[in-house]
Amino acid sequence: MSRYARGRGMAAAWYGIAKTATIDRAGSWVELDDGGTAKVLTGVTEIGEGILTVLAQVAAEELGIRPEQVTIGDNDTSRSPEAAHAGATRQTYMIGNSVALACRNARERLDAEIADHWGVDINLIEAFNGEIWARGTNKRMTMEEAVHICKSRGVVPVGSGSFTAHGTGLDPVNGTGAPWQVYVFGAQVAEVEVDTVTGEVQVLGMWAVHDVGRTINPRGVEGQIEGAIVQGLGQALMEDYQTEKGHTTTPGFSKYILPTALDIPQINSRLVEDRDPKSPLGAKGIGEPALVPTAPAIINAIYDAIGVRITSLPATPEKVLAGLAAKKAASIAAE
Amino acid sequence: MFTYDSYHLPRTLREALELAATLPADGKVIAGGTDIVPYAREGRGGDVHFPVLLDVSKVAEFQGYAIENGRARLNAALPYQAFLEDPVLRENLPCMPGCAIWFADDQIREQATLAGNLVNASPAGDGAPPMMALNAEVELARLSGGEVTTRRLPLGEFITGPGRTVLEPGELVTAVICDALPGYGGSFQKVGQRRSLVISRVCAAALVKLDPTRHVFEDVRLALGGIAPVPLRLHDIEEMLRGKKITRRLVAEASVIPADRVASRTRVEYRRHVVRGFVEAAIEDALVACGAPVPSDRDREEAHA
Amino acid sequence: MPDHVMNLTVNGRKVKRPLGENYRLLDFLREELHLTGAKEGCGAGECGTCSVFVDGKLVKSCLMPTLKADGATIETVEGLAPLDSLTEVQRAFHKTGASQCGYCIPGMVMAATAALRENPEADFEEIKERLGGNICRCTGYAKIFEAVEIARDVIAGRLPQTALEPDAAAESFIGASVRRIDAPSKVTGRLKYAGDMIMPDMLHMQVLRSPHAHARIVSIDTSEAEALEGVACVITAADVPGEDGFGVFVHDQPIMARGKVRHVGEAVAAVSAESVEIARRALGLIKVEYEELPAVFDPEEAMRPGAPVIHDYAPDNLVKHIPIRKGDVEAGFAEADLIVENTYSTQQIEHAYLEPEAGLAYVDPDGVVTIHSPSQNITHHRHMLAKIINRPINKVRFIMSPVGGGFGGKEDMIYQGMLALAAMKSGRPVRLVFTREESIIASAKRHPARITYRMGLKSDGRITAVSFRMISDGGAYGMSTEGVMRKAAILAFGPYEVPNLKVDTYGIYTNNTPSGAFRSFGAMQTQFATESHLDLCAEKLGLDPFEIRRRNMMKIGSTTHTGQMLETCSMEEVLRVAEEFCRWERGAPTSRGATRSDLGGPDTRKPCTLGARFKMPEAEESKQEVA
Ligand SMILES: Cc1cc2nc3c(=O)[nH]c(=O)nc-3n(C[C@H](O)[C@H](O)[C@H](O)COP(=O)(O)OP(=O)(O)OC[C@H]3O[C@@H](n4cnc5c(N)ncnc54)[C@H](O)[C@@H]3O)c2cc1C
């Protein structure tokens, strides 16, 4: 037998978006500001996932300005509206949609003034990338001018938005209920190489396919998938918080082992866009679901490579070798 | 928390030895600090306070290395990165680049010294096995009656157990002196839980020299780490191979033997299995480094039949 | 020693400053020079958030005694580029989206800079090795590597400077890879996380933690600690003015241990002092008398009658049981051609965000108790804290400081309450920065799970029935356990339509480190079992893994395990794309790896063998050759 054995495995997964088995809600305030810029206030934002940028993109798109012209305020329970927590893969879905609604609200104010100023029907007004115009006419100006005109007419173009996701509680006896209004689906494939001398598993490739509803920022989504896969890989192969009589034996990063730059696969992602019909943006989410299929895909790939079924995570080199030894013993016994 | 009252950075050996002579019992010699500083953390040493720290990393006599009469003198402040980056060291110590690349990371290697690694005497330390294979001696110096006196000990006698050496109060390691073996093929095997910043579960170092026919082992050096309280040199297996015609089967046979030497308290079965594969791989890789062809899967199968 | 004057050149400027209590170079840079781009992710040289150049060599400044660097030339992330400009490496990080939470990023930018300084022609493998000392928990490293390769090629002139520019705007900003708006602040190290913030007159908090897993607190004597010079106040549960208790679902956790401790590392008292060192010394002067209680560390033991009770309100140690039932399971099994049973287990996992917990609290001039912290749930924290400190809700203010990674681990209010109490008691701003070790023992983990699985299938692969029981160690406090059990149960059987099923998930109290919210909230554990189990069944039935899933997958109109009708469903499309995308070779999962023809494509990496920088190209070639 060759020292190195390769194999592939796959796994699929599903996930619900936003808070579970309850109504979820998020609020935002928006102001189209001087210079054709904008302020967005909402109660919760960035934990690294890129939501600030997503919100800036959403606000820019809805307001007709550019993302870099959007300022997102601090998350402050005394200065911004409630948007609940940063979790449950709810950021793009809940806060993104609430910002979209707030922007539409602000635009209604602005558009009404500009339509009146131009003497055109409000439904003809469109704006993008710092410019506003009336469709089918030669009326056009910058957003900076538009905000100035709106304010000179005595109106500050502000808006607010509240977005709701309708989940219902579960029946306490049989669990019946509609916990989320939107689900996502995904599948991942892993290719591994197992070193039969050391029991080490290297993941060489991962293919991730996820339904995200509608992609707001492709690189951002990829970043979420890549990060989730490496966390899933850590759980599949090395991470293990251990205690002995309640005292941890993995108290620091020399004992609690995390994947490094040398432990990660090439990650290939592809997105499926099945838009959510129940929300203004049509986007769903990716943060958590991308982690779910990783470990089983890797474990299934290890089985493909060496015929050892790991049922208890993580698949440490020691467990892999013990599995190989057990398999050998079983095949000798069978002879 | 890591705290200290006074910190000395002597520039000469004499100064350093004077300070060492008066170092209080709870004072400490420090070189790269990569063992000492992270020890002062919860779950390890907790809050550790040193009344005096004696930093030997700037001592002039401890810098650099010299190669003379087939021996390399590796001065005490030499950091691991030198084994990777210095072409002379790479050529003369052929098992060390592999050891160094597996050792911690580029940044730790800029600080971490070989001397500190050997004094620390961790059973999982990576420096000891290749140094055992290179017949290393540790040179120690102290002041006695105002004079610098030195003694030299083989590495196997210097390290007496996990975290234990024969280093005495007032003594400093001045250098590690080992064989310079240009023309040898060297290799280093290591397994831990990942591939960077990884502590050895098992490691193995090998050095091989071919005779002029290139078919016979002229010399073989083998050592293991991580499997016993102290590093192990495999003299009997070296003896078994030396002067023999190189065949895969011979290498495979030789590698079965040392599994019995695993004397760790944990992961014994695991280590026994790895040791066997590592001895074989270490010799094979060292042969490849001498220019031998890479064995194919078929060779392996035949050898293990 | 504190008066020793350090002479250094830092980012091109001469610096002459007293050493103070800054024992490590990292402390000196951060506390004395306010260069907070270097961070303390672990304090043990294991993560690289503190990387700086000392005399041209990149080192981990948490491991360097400050005096070792006396006289040295230091370059930190703040000094890489003049203000208002970025280096190629920084621009490339901005371009590719290489920063997420940003906490590892200053160190990562330094490592990338060092890699390209050491070898401007470093190839992909060598770049990875040279970044091997820097941990990133968010990005999976992919975009970081991409950035370093772009920067290398721009510096070498192989790529034009425009390669670092943003992509041109298309017709819409939705669907465009707009560069992250927070990236410049992260790649330059300018962004201030809670642990980087300072206020005039600020105190430093340290926390006394329980050495016992389960013990009654007989007495706490803080008098000696309070008397120590430099100590402003000591707080314990006795200082809580309101209704003490927090948690995501049940409010079962006091701000500090009240009457008893339930896990090792639980906060018992906290000292606020003029310096961290004084505060730590004061911790040693607090006398706590404990009476140890029988403890339980295994959830199944904790479920047995007579087991030690951890919370009075839950005499059976049950945090939450979630049942789900659909159809008739017995009939479903009776109908099956094949029944497969197995057990699975998953481990406790640490979030390991690179930013350990940190916060800064003060009472503002209007009497508003204000807390800056990387909290993932400021709304709920405000509700709970208002009750705990007995103030009107508008007199409590939470500000979410930049979060250096959360993954669910920063949803629990495990330290903000102590900061609030100390700020109220001392009348001064108080800062607390966890060490890595403290973060590990005091914060929640991913729930470990033991799963018993039984699945019945027809010989064509259709699932007729499943039963599933999961027992999960919730640890000493409820935190998110209830929600995790719920989500685990709802999603347990994956995206497959199963006519008859029975699920039970149990979250159990023990005296272990609490388990809580962690990215995927229980779904990972249950679906790991499901997806492993499906492959087992597929092997027995001789079915391809994609095929067995396709035969059972949910579709539009399917009824979920909880009886919800799906109005949209992309599962079929996802499977189709995945199979094609990875060039899958069909066949039953019979460990046929050795014979597969779809392995080793251009979309995989090479196995990592170390030593890219000194391997001769011939060595690589000769590896291919068969002797
Ligand atoms: C993140 C990380 C990764 C690591 N990875 C590895 C690894 O892969 N493999 C490995 O083997 N080790 C590893 N280590 C451990 C450590 O880096 C090594 O043991 C290192 O070689 C110690 O050298 P130092 O100069 O830093 O020693 P120091 O910490 O300065 O000292 C270590 C001991 O040696 C003594 N000492 C040092 N020099 C002298 C002298 N001249 N005379 C007398 N006594 C002296 C000190 O008093 C102390 O007892 C790692 C450490 C860290 C923090």
Topology, please?
The complex is a heterotrimer of chains A (335), B (305) and C (627).
Chain A: E1 4-16, E2 23-33, E3 37-42, H1 51-63, E4 70-72, E5 75-76, H2 91-118, E6 125-128, E7 131-134, E8 140-142, H3 143-152, E9 158-166, E10 183-195, E11 201-211, H4 218-237, E12 243-244, E13 247-248, E14 266-272, H5 294-306, H6 317-334
Parallel strand pairs in A: 3-4, 11-14
Antiparallel strand pairs in A: 1-10, 2-3, 2-9, 6-7, 7-8, 10-11, 12-13
Chain B: E1 2-8, H1 13-21, E2 28-30, H2 36-39, E3 48-55, E4 65-68, E5 71-75, H3 81-85, H4 87-92, H5 96-101, H6 106-111, H7 114-120, H8 128-133, E6 137-144, E7 147-154, H9 155-158, E8 159-161, E9 164-165, E10 172-179, E11 185-191, E12 202-210, E13 217-225, E14 232-233, H10 235-241, H11 248-256, H12 268-289, H13 297-304
Parallel strand pairs in B: 1-3, 2-3
Antiparallel strand pairs in B: 4-5, 5-10, 6-7, 6-10, 8-9, 11-12, 12-13, 13-14
Helix pairs in contact in B: 11-12, 11-13
Chain C: E1 5-10, E2 13-18, H1 25-32, E3 51-54, E4 57-60, E5 73-75, H2 88-96, H3 105-118, H4 124-130, H5 142-155, H6 183-187, E6 203-209, E7 215-221, H7 223-227, E8 231-235, E9 260-261, E10 267-273, H8 276-283, E11 287-292, H9 299-303, E12 318-326, H10 329-335, E13 338-346, E14 358-363, E15 369-373, H11 378-389, E16 396-400, H12 416-426, E17 430-433, H13 436-442, E18 445-446, E19 449-457, E20 463-475, H14 481-491, E21 501-509, E22 515-516, H15 523-541, H16 545-552, H17 571-581, H18 617-624
Parallel strand pairs in C: 1-5, 6-17, 15-16, 18-22, 20-21
Antiparallel strand pairs in C: 1-2, 3-4, 3-5, 6-10, 7-9, 7-11, 8-10, 12-21, 13-19, 14-15, 14-17, 19-20
Helix pairs in contact in C: 2-5, 11-12, 14-15
The structure holds flavin-adenine dinucleotide.
Report the major sheet of chain B.
5 strands, antiparallel
The separation of the N and C termini of chain A measures 19 Å
Average per-residue pLDDT of chain B, rounded, comes to 95
Largest interface: A-C, 148 and 159 residues
Instruction: Report, as a whole number of angstroms, the end-to-end distance of chain B.
Output: 56 Å
Which strands sit side by side, in order, in the main sheet of chain B? 4-5-10-6-7
Which fold name is given in CATH as the topology of the largest domain in chain A?
Aldehyde Oxidoreductase, domain 4
CATH topology of the largest domain in chain B: Uridine Diphospho-n-acetylenolpyruvylglucosamine Reductase, domain 3
Please give the largest β-sheet of chain A. 4 strands, mixed
